[in-house]
Specification:
The protein is an alpha+beta fold and 442 residues long. It has 14 helices and ten strands. Strand 5 and strand 6 form a beta hairpin.
Amino acid sequence: MITRHRNQAIVGVVIWFAVLLAYGLAAVYASAHDGPGPPFSAGLFSTLFWGGIILGMLSFLWGGYHLAKGKGYSTALAAIGLFPCLQPALLTMLFVLPDKNAKPTNYCQPVRVHQPIESAIGRVVRYRRNALVQNCFGLLFVLIGIWMTLFPVGIFEDFENESLCGFLVFVGGYVGVMSGCRWWLKAKGWSEAIIFIGLTPLTICLIPFVRNIFIIEPVLLPLSMLLMTLMLLVVIFALPNKSGMTARSRNKKLRWPYQTATAPSPEKPRRTLASARILPATEDDLPALAELAGNIWRQHYPGIISPEQIDYMLGKMYALEALREQIRTQGIQFVRLLVGERFVGFASYGPATAPGVMKLHKCYLLPEMHGRGYGTLLLQHCDREARHRGAHRLILAVNKHNAKAVAAYQRNGFAVVESVITDFGSGFVMDDFIMAKDLPPV
C-alpha cells in the first residue's frame, strides 16, 4: 500500500472508530443513569448526536477514500459509506481486498521531474516544523479545554454545555499533540508506534470491565489522557536523535531545505583533471574498493537512510564474494578513479535486461571530492563505454532523497522516468528514482 495513503486511512478509520466508541460509552452511561429525568438535556443530546454523525461520516469517507486509493482501487467505493449501515461491511471489504500496490511488486508511477526533490536535511526540518506547530497549538487547546471544563466562561447559559464544549476542545488539542509527537518521532528517526504511550487511556476503553472505571469516575479519562500526553512528550524529548542530522549540518544546509537540480550552490575550487585516471578494476582491487565504499556510504548516507540500513546494505552489496560474483557471472565491469595515486571513486556498469540498454550500477566519489568535475568524468567514461558496447540508453537507480546525486545526474543529461520501491530484505526497502539517458550512436 502507498505509505501516505495508508497513514491517512489510519487517521480516518481511528477517528471513525473513536466516534463509535463514544456512542457506545454514551449508551452505557445512559443505561447506568438512575437519577431523575433523562441523563442528557435535549440541547446536549442534539449536539452530541448530530456532531457525532457528521464527524463519523466525514472521518469514514476520508479513511475509506485513502484506503481505496492506497490499495489501488477506485475511490468511488468510499461513497458507499454515505449509508451508515454499510460502513462496517465496506471497511471489512477494503481490508480483505488484495493490495494492488504491495511493495514487493515494485510500486511504480510516473514522476513529475519538475517537482522539487527534498533533501534529507530539508525533510527533517519539515518534520520538526510540523511537530513544533502541532504540539504548540495542541497544548494550547488542551489548556483552553481544561479551563472551559473547570471554570464558567459564559459562552453558554448552561455550564453543562460549556463543559462539553471544553471537553471537545480538549480532545482536539489531544489529537493535535498526538500528531505533533508523530512528526517529532519521524524527525528523530524513531518508530511512530511510540505514540501509543499517549493513546493508552483510549485502549483501556476497549477492555471489558476495566473501562467501567471511566464510567464510574468520568473525570479519570481526560486526566489520564493529559498525564500520558505529558509522559509521551518527556519520553520523546529524552530519546536520542537517530536522524543523523547534526547541529553543524543543520546550520550549514538550512538555507536550501528543498534542493532542486537548478538550486544555486556555492562555488567550489576546481582542480585540474589532468592528474585523474580511470582504470579497470580487477579482483585484486576489490578489497580496497569495498573499503572505499564503506567510507563513502558512512559519510554521505546518514540522514538519507538509517545507520542500520547502511550497515545491512554494505554487508550485502560490498561483501568480497558478492563483488566477485558480479564480475564473474553478471558481466559487470568495475572501474577505479585515481587522482594522482589516490583512490577516490569508482563506478560499475553492465548490461540491463532490456536489449540495447546499459545499467550504471554504481558511481561513487569521496564527498570531499564533490564539485570538482571528477563525478562528471566518471559518468562520461561510462557513457562512452556503453555506446561502444552498442547501447542506445543508459539507466541507473538513485535514492529519491539523495538530492545531491539526483541533481548531478540531471546536470549530466539524465532524467527521472519512474519511481520504484523495492524490498531489500530484513524490513528495509530501496526507495529510488529510475533515471535514464538516451545515447547518440558512436
